[in-house]
Amino acid sequence: MSRAFESPRPWWQSLIAPVVVLIVGAVVSRDDFWIYLAITAAAAFILTVSFNLIYGYAGIFSLAHVAVYGIGAYTACLVQMNYGVPFLLATLGSMAFCGVASLVLWWPTRHLKDLFLAIATLGFAVTVQEILLKWSVTGGAEGLLGIPLANIAGHDFVANTMQYYWLAAVGAVLAFEISARVTSSGTGRKFIALRDAPVALSAVGVSPGRVRLVAFVIAGALAGLAGTLFAHQNLFIASESFGLDRLIVLILAVLIGGSGTQLGPVVGVIALVFIDEAGVASAGYNTLILGGAIILLLGYGQGGLMGLVERLRGLLRRDTSARPLPVPARAAQFDAPRTDATLRVADVSVDFGGVRALDDVTLEVRSGEVLGLIGPNGAGKTTLVNVVTGHVRPTAGQVSLDGARLDRSRPHEVAQRGVVRTFQTPRLLPDVSVVGNVALGFAGVARAGDLGEIVDSRRAREDTRDALGRAVGLLEALDVHTGLTEPAGSQPYAHQRLTEIARALATRPAFVLLDEPGAGLSDHERDNLAVIIGRLAEAGIGVLLIDHNVSFVAAVSDRIHVLDRGQTLATGEPAEVLERREVVAAYFGGDA
Amino acid sequence: MTQFLVTTLCNAAVYALIAVSLNVVYRSSGVLNFGAGHITVVAGIFYVNQLDPGVIGILVTVVAAAATALLGYVTSVAWGQRRGIHHVSLSLALLGYGLVLDFAAGEIWAKEGFSAGPLIGGSVTIGDTTFSRERILVVALAAIFILGTLLFVDRTMAGNAIEATAADSELATLYGVRTDVVAVVTWLLAGAALGLAGVLQASIAAVSLTTALPLVIFGIAAAVVGGLGSISKAAAGAVAVAGVQTAFIQFVSPRYSVSMVFVLLFIVLALRPAGLFANARVAERV
């Protein structure tokens, strides 16, 4: 479903939106009512696009989005009316203010999960609604009257005329372009990762909180633009235009078209204008229609109209290997940046409530070395990995990289410092292609800034081409040659494992922590994996390998560390350690 | 001061019932019933319009509300839950159900405020403050219902089945718990709480369709401030929310009383996402 960003966006696609807008303009210009509808649709389109970015792509269910839209409308009008700020400046100011308001929304909610985020943002929405309704500055219950006409360089854009249509159309084209560029750049990859597997983001050194921030600010600024255009079309605004009803219609618009698709908002906005007009015609039944539509789309819906189109296309497309690679492969490179590093876990203990999961464990991994970590179920192996990568705080002891402490860092900071991991069950973006998944690993080393990616600068395009090309190279180096452009979720399990390892290597790590990479693989696939692990060590990467298959670990590792019930049981050369009585006892029972 | 306490406890009684209802459903399914306010209000309107106030009237309303909540589960949640539709989507589908109820109630009765006659007469004087005995009854009824729910969940087999399903629904199935029956019982219980909340709200103030959203929002605030996932903490959260709200209205300004609650909610979510009264969080499995 998220094909857009898996190849650089061709230049001619930037022409689509202007052409559509011109055609619509030509069609509606004869009739005042159609002009009015077209303007309404253009402003609503901007709002829908912005909500599609934050909810559809980034998966942030912000119920405050309509409130931000309202803030935009009021801000633009108030600075014009009270301070005589010219229209264009007021519009830019209102977009900026909405971006800032989104920061206020982002900060307290940056660690909240889906439902709690929805609750907190709903609270923000209700608060804004109450302030708009009761504050004297915003005109209170009567609303804001006497909004001046939009005016640029002395030229008035009279509401509900073709002139105003062209103004709104420029805004709509702008919104479409920004959305298309954002979603085809590295930022788009990060949005989808935030939605589908946030833990994958921190695994490649990107802060999920920061990605949320970018989504909030872009969507907020676009909502501000939509609000300004809405206000100057109607020349009157009141708090009820920014209440729950509008929010519900907006959610419906995004869902009908299909959230997280580029064309979804186009379909959605047509439905939205239709719902509005139908609502005027059938005033009494509005709540019934909205309520029924919400139950159907949210309780029973699956991907909206564009989702349906995708499913049909999937049924029609028989030859699954036909899709060409988006870019030529680049040579793979995963040599460790340094070859003299040491990752040290010193006297670490972890308590979960009353359970001691790790008890005073000390171990060390050096560059170019494979350390096997084995132990029976519940020995604390995964907890140890979680401590190193910052997912679990140790109760006592510390983790350090070349003497610098690591255990106070958040997971994405640990990854940035060159310690990356894979997970027991691969954390991939199931709808994104294998290449796209690996390309996510290059997000931490992209040269373009957030702003560059938003406007899809030349540098951001190069980043995308680079990331995709090198991703192909990495995958081929790991012997993954088929299905590169297919959704990762549809690939064989062994390929998913290797895809995750390739993504980890894309960050150019000094240390890789593999959490049961051999689980679920056939003997042949596991042999292949053993060869790959050997090559990582040759490239100077330090590997911490967890697995249940003792002979596999023994064959690959330089040293072995055995855990049992949170405690170190033995450590040393594989052959020697596996001879020890207490190790045999831990695995097979009997007296130590 | 007495006045403040009485007002706080009366409001808390209503919020607590809604919060407990939200909690029971959330624990068993991860879904937050955004339609709870509408069920509450419609129950209140039903109580005022159809029946003589009194024991029978209250019982009929509570049963009707329980059935309404169950219908909401059947129409908006059950199918999606089996198909693995995201719980946030299902929570909002319930808001859609609330809107449908809103429409139906508007068609049957009027879209105005309704107030029930007093449940009992008489008044009490403490110090120099006089208030009606009904207010004590309101708080007592809510307290009895919540204590009853706690005992039911703690002490009965049916309650244990609900707890088991909440903790791990698949495992509960393996141990022979009929999780579909548990879901029905859960939603009936949650609906009954909302029915009582509607009756009490109609008795101490008024119910109208426009108060549906504020009510569910206060209920959510109470549940989250207390800590979603525990009935007694939700009730404590209700007292905290009602206290802040009443204090603000009495001592600062009656304006922005909804916003005040949300400033509190925002602060709690930012600083202690697991709730004011929650223990330290157990680490999640990655």
Computed structural class of chain A: alpha/beta
Q: What's the CATH topology label of chain B?
A: ABC transporter involved in vitamin B12 uptake, BtuC
Unreliable segments of 5+ consecutive residues of chain A? 1-5
H/E element sequence of chain B: HHHHEEHHHHHHH
Shape of chain A: elongated
**CA-atom Rg of chain A in angstroms:** 28 Å
The helical percent of chain B reads over 70%
Let me know the number of strands of chain B.
2
* Largest sheet geometry of chain A: 6 strands, mixed
Q: What are the low-pLDDT stretches of chain B, counting only 5+ consecutive residues below 50?
A: 280-286
- The percentage of residues in β strands of chain A lies in 5-15%
CATH class of chain B: Mainly Alpha
Number of helices of chain B: 11
Strands of chain A, count: 12
By secondary-structure content and strand pairing, the structural class of chain B works out as: mainly alpha
3D architecture notes:
The complex is a heterodimer of chains A (592) and B (286). Chain A has 23 helices and twelve strands. Chain A has 592 residues and is an alpha/beta fold. Chain A folds into four domains: 12-242, no CATH class; 245-316, no CATH class; 335-418 and 508-592, Rossmann fold; 430-507, no CATH class. Chain A has a six-stranded mixed beta sheet with strand order 8-9-10-5-11-12, with helices on both faces. Chain A has a four-stranded antiparallel beta sheet with strand order 4-3-6-7, covered by helices on one side. In chain A, a hairpin with a 2-residue loop joins strand 1 (150-152) and strand 2 (155-157). The longest helix of chain A is centred in the middle third of the chain and has 27 residues, at 208-234. Chain A is elongated, with a radius of gyration of 28 Å. With 286 residues, chain B is mainly α. Chain B has a single domain (2-271), classed as ABC transporter involved in vitamin B12 uptake, BtuC, CATH 1.10.3470. Helices cover 74% and strands 3% of the residues of chain B. Chain B has a two-stranded antiparallel ribbon. In chain B, strand 1 and strand 2 form a beta hairpin. In chain B, helix 3 crosses helix 8 (179-204). The longest helix of chain B is centred in the N-terminal third of the chain and has 28 residues, at 2-29. Chain B is globular and about 60 Å long. Mean pLDDT of chain B is 85; it is low at 280-286. The interface between A and B is large, with 45 and 48 residues.
